[in-house]
Design goal:
By secondary structure, this protein is α+β, with helices and mostly antiparallel strands. 44% of the residues lie in helices and 18% in strands. The protein has two domains: 3-103; 112-240, no CATH class. β4 and β5 (216-222) form a beta hairpin. α2 (26-34) packs across α3 (36-57) and α3 (36-57) crosses α7 (112-127).
Length: 243
């Protein structure tokens, strides 16, 4: 089974976890547990499915819709849909579209690996063992904690020095990732940096894209040298305020 086959199978996995004992998903679930990129994609997929399902459950179909569907309709009638049926269908479409836009406000050219990096950041924020030391790390944290300061650019980051002096190092899809934790006005953030080589599919110079999950929110963006992710449990607006 390759990654695309695993994604095809996992796309049918119900977000409430009720399929966890179904043998149909066993191999794909094991792959998601071993592959951080696939695992991040799976977490994002489940969060998106749960959000869409929640919105759809809030929609109350109009009276008579069931009977109209069961009775059938002539082709000529279908070309001129009744107002209530059209409005109901439009409501579902709008709800699904709203979830998609809110979950990942990304330019079309941004690839799935960018979303996976955001999911990776959220997952590590929740489950990782955070820490790290060294003067460069402390200097960067001090800069990040200044009220009103924007996130640093490539010129302010010495990746090798951060790595060599004890900054926490992770691995994402074969890439070294530096993480520093900092607090701003009582809110904790986790900042991730990896060397830019285009593999994350985030076009340089574009604005950030946002991923929202139940566990937290993250933004992903790039400049000429690095790909970045910023995650917090305080919600997407807390992330936006720093960018």
């Amino acid at each position: 089974m390759n990654t695309e086959e695993a994604k095809f199978i996992l796309s049918a996995y119900r977000p409430n976890g009720s399929d966890s004992d179904d043998a149909t998903f066993a191999d794909a679930l094991r792959m998601a547990g071993d592959d951080p990129v696939l695992g991040a994609w799976f977490a994002q997929s489940r969060a998106h499915d749960a959000a869409v399902a929640g919105k759809v459950r809030q929609i109350v179909p109009p009276e008579g819709l069931r009977e109209a569907i069961l009775a059938g309709a002539r082709v000529s009638d279908m070309r001129k849909p009744r107002g209530f049926a059209w409005g109901w269908a439009a409501g579902i479409a709008a709800a699904v579209l709203a979830i998609g836009v809110f979950s990942m406000r990304a330019p079309v050219r941004q690839g799935p690996a960018a979303a996976a990096f955001a999911g990776f950041a959220i997952n590590d924020m929740v489950h990782g063992r955070h820490g790290g030391s060294g003067e460069p790390s402390g200097t960067l944290i001090a800069q990040l904690q200044v009220k009103g300061a924007k996130m640093p650019s490539a010129e302010a980051i010495d990746f090798e020095k951060l790595k060599d002096t004890g900054c926490r190092t992770l691995n994402f899809a074969g890439h070294d990732v530096m993480e520093v934790c900092f607090a701003r006005e009582g809110v904790e953030f986790h900042f991730y940096v990896t060397r830019r080589d285009g593999s994350l599919g985030v076009p340089g110079g574009q604005g950030p894209s946002y991923l929202v999950q139940a566990a937290g929110a993250a933004a992903v963006w790039s400049d000429s040298r690095f790909d970045y992710a910023l995650a917090t449990t305080a919600g997407v607006e807390a992330v936006r305020r720093l960018l």
